[in-house]
Amino acid sequence: MRFELYKIFKKRVVLILICVGLVWGLFSALQPALEYTTYTEQMDKLTGIKAIRYDRDLQNKYAGRYSMKELKSLYKKEEDIYNNQEYQRPEDEDGGYSYSDASGNTTSLTDEAYYKHLNRYNVISLVGSRTFYNPRFVKDLIATGDLTEFYLGSIVRYPGEEKLIPSPDSSTPIVKKLVELYDDLQYPFKGAYINGWEDFFNTIPVFFPWMVGLIIVIGIVPMFAEETSSGSDKVLLTTRYGKTRMIRDKIAAGFLYASFVFLLFAVFFIALYTGIYGASGLSASIQLLGHCKLSPYDMSINQALIGWVLWGWLAALMISAETMLFSSLASNTFAALIPSFIVYIVPMMGFAEISPKLHRVLQLLPVNIIGDVDRLFSMPDYYTIFGSLVEKKILIVFVGIAAVIICSLLSAVIFKKKEASN
């Protein structure tokens, strides 16, 4: 097995792509961090990491989970400052506001008012808005059964996916299950400085499907096809261990390589963002994130990241298994690469307008899972299987395990049969 791993990593294209991915990831995280700007309460300008650490330490003075009474008192203080007419920025000629160039002040308050009085209450502002306004959406859901507000921005992201929203009906099983989850949700939410983790949840869904998934495909696609194209399969399959240990080692090496690549980048990104923005935000409720503001799951950002790593890892194994299958079928590496790319990338395209059912099936394939940190816990996505509702995350586990086993067995059987054809 070590020899099979060595054959993968000795290829320059694999090492180059891994290095490119790490540099890309480093740049994508560092650029906004270095451009970050804030002011102290004494109006001294700060930029970069120093500015992030100042805001983090200032706003984390109000981190934690408060009682409802305590939160209401603090939230009222924040609203009083926000609505104070003496702090408002004057309107420009177009009737709007000329907002500050500092990263934090996107309000209508002057920079002086914002940074001297309001900046420290950012955690309270976020926790209060989510805690006091989310139950209103739930109340409306119970009354109308309309899931539009809950699906938009979570399950529904792309054109045509509006068709996936069920018709309003408060008696449907989906609405009832969702309401049960909200009944178990703990209020108020737990707050902490989460700047940066919002960027993390925006970066991962793009980076992992396009970079990490393709690195896995490119590394594994020569696994069997290279032996076939060189003619070495004719010799290897006649040896004592050719049809048993060699094939087993190849499949094991494929899974180890996929696991290494996925976990390398997952740990790299989490460590990078933790190093820049701190770990305090990981304990905050996921409802503080824009993508998960209406999430019914009582969990922290840290727990969501652990969940994503587990499901993403399974997706990486699925990519490995299906690529090995195409490699075992092909006569050369290029012949295996084309179908592997097509099968991997095509499910990323939106098919909701053409066929909502097909689109739903494709959402269970690895390219739509490996970077799905923003969707997995934003809203439960239910599939109807034999008349019963099954949550997408559970379905992914069954589909993923089945795909890994079936593709692995088929790869072994197909490659073994090449002895007979030789």
Tell me what you see in this structure.
By secondary structure, the protein is mainly α. The protein is 61% helix and 3% strand. It contains 16 helices and 4 strands. The protein has helices at 2-9, 12-35, 48-59, 68-83, 111-118, 122-144, 148-151, 173-183, 197-220, 222-230, 232-236, 245-277, 301-329, 333-345, 356-362, 392-421; strands at residues 37-39, 45-47, 382-385, 388-391. It has a two-stranded antiparallel ribbon with strand order 1-2. A two-stranded antiparallel ribbon has the order 3-4. Strand 1 (37-39) and strand 2 (45-47) form a beta hairpin. Helix 12 runs antiparallel to helix 13 (301-329). The radius of gyration is 25 Å and the shape is globular. The two termini are 25 Å apart.
